[in-house]
Amino acid sequence: MRKKVGMAAITVYGFFCFMLLFGVDGQAYIDPSVMTYVIQAVAGIVIAVGAAAGIYWRKARRKIKDKLGIDVDKKKEKETDDIIVK
Predict the structure, then answer these.
(1) Nearby residues of 66 by Cβ (< 8 Å), 6 or more positions away
(2) Is the pTM of this model over 0.70?
(3) Residue 72 CB partners (closer than 8 Å, separation 6+)
(4) Cα distance between the two ends of the chain
(5) Cα of 15 vs its chain's centroid, Å
(6) Which of 25, 46, 64, 77 is 20 to 30 A from 9, comparing alpha carbons?
């Protein structure tokens, strides 16, 4: 069954369409603090994308080295879990 759309909903929809089609351009002052916020937001996005790219790059590199049979931990120093009591 289809629900009937009320006259109020049609009126509200028509009002919003009218506002979008025949809107008036506004002129506003952009405060310097707004630009500082924009710079911070852009810097945050760049840092987040760079961190995500670095994480996925390391994962991909490790998978490629595993497929090729290259030992990733070859040059690393390995510690044992032995406890020596004197």
Answers:
(1) 72
(2) no
(3) 62, 65, 66
(4) 84
(5) 35
(6) 25
- For residues 72 and 65, the answer to whether their CB atoms sit within 8 Å is yes
Q: Distance between CA atoms of 44 and 42, rounded to whole angstroms?
A: 5
The rounded distance, in Å, linking the Cα atoms of 56 and 49 is 11
CA–CA dist 48, 23 (Å, integer)? 36
Return the amino acid letter for 61: R
Q: Which residue has the tokens 């809107």?
A: 23
CA distance 55 to 67: 19
pLDDT digit of tens for each residue in the chain (86 aa)? 456 667 888 888 888 888 888 877 777 787 888 889 999 999 999 999 999 999 999 999 988 988 888 877 777 777 777 888 87
